[in-house]
Structure prediction request, 116 residues.
Amino acid sequence: MSVVLKLVCIVTILAIVEFESVTSAGGGQCGKLSPDKLAIKLASCAQAAKVAKAAVPKTCCAQTKIIGRNPKCLCAVLFSPTAKRAGVIPKIAVTIPKRCNLPRRKGTKCGPYIVP
Prediction:
């Protein structure tokens, strides 16, 4: 395959991937933001989202507070493919707002879990 053809294939694939992320994020749980991209902002929560007794870093709590202003978005982020690839355990991750002493949002359902 020629170099030009390979380059065209790569550019086409990248355009499709970008289009998918833009269109799927347009009316999603997080508005125009992709839950996968927001999951990166919660990188400091990685250990706390895997181990229930792990300390939750202040940076994690700060980002959780910001994203958690929209509880449905926070749930989408915690259940995103990026979070899954990072080894996040949803049952533990949904406890982070409580562990950060953030205001409770009773009844916020996150998949099969309720955010305490």
Observations:
- The chain has seven helices and two strands.
- The longest strand covers residues 109-110.
